[in-house]
Amino acid sequence: xxxxxxxxxxxxxxxxxxxxxxxxxxxxxxxxxxxxxxxxxxxxxxxxxxxxxxxxxxxxxxxxxxxxxxxxxxxxxxxxxxxxxxxxxxxxxxxxxxxxxxxxxxxxxxxxxxxxxxxxxxxxxxxxxxxxxxxxxxxxxxxxxxxxxxxxxxxxxxxxxxxxxxxxxxxxxxxxxxxxxxxxxxxxxxxxxxxxxxxxxxxxxxxxxxxxxxxxxxxxxxxxxxxxx
Length: 229
Description:
Layout: E1 2-6, H1 10-22, E2 26-30, H2 33-42, E3 47-51, H3 59-68, E4 75-79, H4 84-93, E5 97-100, H5 105-122, E6 132-134, E7 137-140, E8 145-148, E9 151-153, H6 157-167, H7 176-184, H8 194-206, E10 215-218, E11 222-225
Parallel strand pairs: 1-2, 1-3, 3-4, 4-5
Antiparallel strand pairs: 6-7, 7-8, 8-9, 10-11
């Protein structure tokens, strides 16, 4: 899941970034309304989490402008305002859910996942959240579950992100640079072997105990998930 958080409170931002990243999600942050609106319009996000009281442009104005421009990405409002009138105003502006501060990260995460499930069901042509399969390997993006030959495989968050990336690009060779940008959100080479180590860990979990190998290395080029032969 790729999210955009528009929030000017640094403590709340750090708390949410840590929580979602530990769950294997990618999250961008804007700390004012203008920057948040630009990112929301230009980025490809699955979900927006928007504070109401922001510098330069408030959250309700951001949501109203997004909806006016035809942007239908799901939005959860975070707000210290807790009256019924405030909640109604937020939902009428075009948000999909409304949470009052202080809040539980676990509840926010659960609401985000439920909202995305509803979005998927309402848009049958969008298979972004459907199960991904290759041979007997199956990944469920929502439940964060991976199985092979019906056997559950336990993956760490970055291992899960890498496998999902590979499954969304079957038979396509992915370079180390592409993996760094997608899994770590790096736009530079950190001059380490983190990609090789991650691939090695993932291969040991999805291929080691199975006769058909799916994850292949093309030396000097990158990595590919495919069925050979």
